[in-house]
Amino acid sequence: MASPVYTPIIKRVGRVVEAHDGIVLIEGLPSVMVEEAFECENGVLGMCLGFDENSVKGILFDGWEKVTRGMEIRPLGRLLEIPVGEEFIGRVINPLGRPIDGKGEIRSADVRALSTRTMEYPALDVVERDVVEEPVVTGIKAVDALIPVGRGQRELILGDPKIGKTSIAIDAIISQGRSVHTGAGAMKCIFVVCGLKRVELTRIMEVLRSGGAMDYTTIVAATSSESASFQYISPYIGIALAEHFRDKGEDVLIVFDDLTKHAWAWRELSAMLERIPGREGYPGDVFYLHSRLLERVGRKKGGGSITALPIVQTQEGEISGYISTNTISITDGQIYLQSDIFNRGVRPAVNVGLSVSRVGGRAQHPVLRSLSKGLRLAIAQYEELMRVGGFEIEITEERKKELARLKTLYEIFMQKEKDPIELELQCILLFAAKEGYLSKASDTGTLQETAENLIATVRANFPDLKERVWSSHDLTPELNSEFTTILKSIFSAEQMR
């Protein structure tokens, strides 16, 4: 009788030497790779971030306070993974993919529908990328006309605290539900909350829900009350979910709010991991922290794209800060919100002179491109006049008319929050401003009211205008004539007087 053959089972197992504040020191692991996921014996997940001759240093996620000295650690032999799928649309999840909105577990009727994706994934090669040539309609007049964003672009939003950065991103998401048209499908949206307060997360959820945007949006949330490790991985989890939809040929808009707090979380983790600090206490790889994230954004050949709106915080309008300059150099343009403009009551408080879109110009819709020619210069001139103290005391009649025209064009870009405007309505509004239909309203101080009434009237009575604008390849004589006919009929009506 043959002797039985025993196959030894070899396991890589380590033990916790020290655990505190989401950081763990592990001994006994014979081999491990950087960013390899591991699991504690009580089910808490973590990730290796470094090692020395005798121990491995890692971070712990949800439930780290339950990890104690002597616990067994089992490496998983892979990077951190999260489940992805259509079932995540409309849900609020933490960075591990677990729902936190009180709506129960995320399950699929088809077990194959939910797959997994790793937190880190290689960015698209150059040969896999396509040019940015389709617009993202944010619904914000100042952005769509002056700083256009294209599908596959990375457009930074930066400015001081509490001046409307998050509001621009929220309006852009709400706008996707209003901008569906023939030729370009709706965009799925992902809002990554990193380091914001819980009350801010609640506000974002309420605004998106009231605007009907949660039907196509997922929120990945790591608030300021969560550990630094949760905040660190949240943007990478968000982009992994976006890549899942992109690889299915869909277009995705992702917001990172905000990357300044993300850098703070990485600085905190690096300090606890005893990494050598550099400028402003950040570790030497802080640029790579965001470059490897934002390089995963782009438009893929054959269909599918990811458009990113990262948000960065400045202090007292200083855009030359460390994180600000890093992200400016990584992205394809920036929307700069300025406190001085905000304090004058201008909403959104966009500084047109310091804002730019490096690749979105070719993606701007041709009708809007024709109507917005020369507007950047006009707005910048008016902002400069306001900055230096207004106008001359004695000016010619011709100069007065020119200043009145600049004032009308400047004020037409003012806009309330939570009210994104469709592309065709932006076009006819700009046409009305340039052709003088709004001059009287500007002189009497009723421009905003008149513009709102105009938009409401066109939206209610001329629904076919959307298809004609989207299908036009320029401001053709026929479209020009249609705009003129619509405006004459509206301004001759009693409600617009």
TrEMBL record:
Key words of the record: ATP synthesis, ATP-binding, Cell membrane, CF(1), Hydrogen ion transport, Ion transport, Membrane, Nucleotide-binding, Translocase, Transport
Site (Required for activity): S355
Record bears the keyword Disulfide bond: no
Catalytic activity: ATP + H2O + 4 H(+)(in) = ADP + phosphate + 5 H(+)(out)
A Pfam family per the record: ATP-synt_ab_N
E.C. numbers: 7.1.2.2
Recorded GO CC terms: plasma membrane; proton-transporting ATP synthase complex
ATPase F1/V1/A1 complex alpha/beta subunit nucleotide-binding domain sequence ranges: 139-357
Gene Ontology MF terms: ADP binding; ATP binding; proton-transporting ATP synthase activity, rotational mechanism
Catalytic class of the enzyme: translocase
CDD domains from the UniProt entry: F1-ATPase_alpha_CD (cd01132)
Limits of the ATPase F1/V1/A1 complex alpha/beta subunit N-terminal domain: 10-77
SUPFAM superfamilies on file: C-terminal domain of alpha and beta subunits of F1 ATP synthase (SSF47917), N-terminal domain of alpha and beta subunits of F1 ATP synthase (SSF50615), P-loop containing nucleoside triphosphate hydrolases (SSF52540)
Residue ranges occupied by any ATP synthase alpha subunit C-terminal domain in the UniProt entry: 364-489
Localization (cell): Cell membrane; Membrane
Membrane topology note: Peripheral membrane protein
Family named by the database record: Belongs to the ATPase alpha/beta chains family.
Function: Produces ATP from ADP in the presence of a proton gradient across the membrane. The alpha chain is a regulatory subunit.
Subunit-level organization: F-type ATPases have 2 components, CF(1) - the catalytic core - and CF(0) - the membrane proton channel. CF(1) has five subunits: alpha(3), beta(3), gamma(1), delta(1), epsilon(1). CF(0) has four main subunits: a(1), b(1), b'(1) and c(9-12).
Protein name (record): ATP synthase subunit alpha
Organism: Candidatus Sungbacteria bacterium RIFCSPLOWO2_01_FULL_47_10
